[in-house]
Amino acid sequence: MNFPGIRMPDTVSHIHDTNRPLRVAYIVRTVDVVNAKAERLHLRLDAEQRALLEAASEATGSSLSAFVLRSATDAAAGVLADRRAFLLDEQDWRAFDEALERPAQDVSGLRELLTQPTVLDARDQA
Q: Which UniProt keywords apply (predicted)?
């Protein structure tokens, strides 16, 4: 059986003090075919920061750009996950669920506030 990116070697014997033949699979690094990236992000950093990033990228076998992009997007996803997912104990969950089940209420002045132009709208018209 063949799988993309996985190389199956010949049978290997005497692994972990056993005489039974074992088949060992290991993953071969593959290059994903992706659309060319059109956006750029320029960063300013000092020599110490660059050296740290270069050392980490070398340790992971990545290019500096790939390492920084992957690290930054992972960090961004973590920041956003903290704002989308949260844990509640049973009591807090019941209170939260009850609040969601209550009918919507008009908040005095909110509808008017949301329908009036803002300072940002005024700038767009200029």
A: DNA-binding, Repressor, Toxin-antitoxin system, Transcription, Transcription regulation
Inside any domain, residue 116: no
Reading the block at residue 68, the tokens are 């920084």
- Cβ burial of 53 (10 Å; 0-12, 13-18, 19+) is middle
Return d(Cα 5, Cα 32) in angstroms, integer.
10
Residue whose pair of structure tokens reads 């320029």 in the numeric block: 42
Residue 60 covered by a domain: yes
Tell me the per-residue pLDDT of 70-107, one tens digit each, with 9 for 90 and over.
999 999 888 887 777 677 888 988 998 899 899 988 88
Q: State how far the Cα of 117 lies from the Cα of 115, in Å rounded to an integer.
A: 7
For residue 96, is it within any domain?
Answer: no
- Look at residue 26 and give its three-state secondary structure: strand
Q: Domain tally for the chain?
A: 1
Indicate whether 123 belongs to any domain.
no
Does this model's pTM top 0.70? My answer is: no
Beta-carbon contacts of residue 22 (< 8 Å; ≥ 6 apart): 11, 12, 13, 15
Which residues span the domain enclosing 78?
45-86
